[in-house]
Amino acid sequence: MNILDRISLSGVRAYGYHGVLPAEREQGQEFIADAVLWLDTSPAAAADDLSRTVDYAALAGRLAGIISGEPVALIETLAQRLATACLADAKVSHAEITVHKPDAPVGVPVTDISVTIRRSRT
Predict the structure, then answer these.
(1) Which DSSP category does 52 fall into?
(2) Which residues are tagged catalytic?
């Protein structure tokens, strides 16, 4: 039985220009992403070797770069790009991504709008 461990990155913040409305593409806003990765960390723990696990500092930088990078209309698309980046590391079996858009212009006061996706290596 293969039991997987979890690495979580919470609250990765970056400024992006994602959205359906022209004002969102022009003015931008802050986006926040959470990533939960499932993998076997026992090889890294046994060897005390960062190269055998996910370097979460490097991953946080990649996720922030995607958020601040090429604009998309939907946060669902942004979440997919973030999940793809997580799964690019062969050690990661599954990834769960939540993208928060706390300043989403939805016409009524809200604390947060978010989308959560789960993806697995195929």
Answers:
(1) G
(2) 101
